[in-house]
Amino acid sequence: MKNAFRIVAVSTALLLSCASADSGSLLISEDREIQMGGEYNSQLLQEMPVYTGDVRVNDYVTQVGNALAVNSGRPTLPYHFTVVDSEEINAFAVMGGYVYVTTGLLRASASGAEVATIVAHELGHVSARHGVRAMETYLIEKGLTDLLFQGDQTRQLVQGALSTLSLLTFSKDQEREADSLGVQYAAATQWNPWGIIDFFTYLEDAGGGPSSGGVLSQIGELFSTHPANPERIANVTAELEGMGIAKDDPDYRKGLPSEDSGFAAMKAALGG
User: Fold this and answer.
1) Where do the domains of the chain lie?
2) What pLDDT digit, counting tens, does each position of 74-124 carry?
3) SS3 per-residue string spanning the chain
4) What global pTM score does this model have?
């Protein structure tokens, strides 16, 4: 009965969060969003080194991401998960279901729950269509909205948007929303959502990660434009307590190396 109650509670919270997410769009349809996301991905991959080493690394991130996506606010999007070969501790998402994590983040993670909750946070951005909102704002401010209706101008629009790179960072309110959505997606997938608290705490103690000075730094390190870690820790802690999920709740997987062979193999493949 206890487990059944918690599953119902998590499912109800998930439905409420999806209903309240800022998912509306005035200009960009879902089909156009997916098309633009593909163009973003194509252009970003020209600037970032994709990890092409041990397949266990990409396979683990994709497996975790796909499972979370099923329980996200937009489960039918064609999601893509890419590992970027960089020591920067970073993760980000662009419109249309494209999510990126760095090898630096994976090396810094101590459990599958930490990886899962960070990926779930990025899926929160996708579900709430934060990237779409940013693109629409850019088009309106630049007076380019008419190009949406003049044949296929996707490549040109994305090139212009990427030149600012501000479209790949989000407001503090949007980050708070992604935190909230992410922990609910993680819980619905039976990952212990306290993993994001563990990772926030690690970053607070470590003081961030190295910066390469490349496109990832220009996009912004994972927490450089986010609410301060102590604030985020307090906000998410209060939410998890409200959801009735204890830090060591046995109903949710932590994904420690001793219990998660996929996470252990991924870490071994990265040499740490």
Assistant:
1) 2-270
2) 999 999 999 999 988 889 999 999 999 999 999 999 999 999 999 999 999
3) CHHHHHHHHHHHHHHHHHHHCCCCCCCCCHHHHHHHHHHHHHHHCCCCCECCCCHHHHHHHHHHHHHHHHCCCCCCCCCEEEEECCCCCCEEEECCCEEEEEHHHHHHCCCHHHHHHHHHHHHHHHHCCHHHHHHHHHHHHCCCHHHHHCCCCHHHHHHHHHCCCHHHCCCHHHHHHHHHHHHHHHHHCCECCCHHHHHHHHHHHHCCCCCCCCHHHHHCCCCCCCCCHHHHHHHHHHHHHHHCCCCCCCCCECCCCCCCHHHHHHHHHHCC
4) 0.85
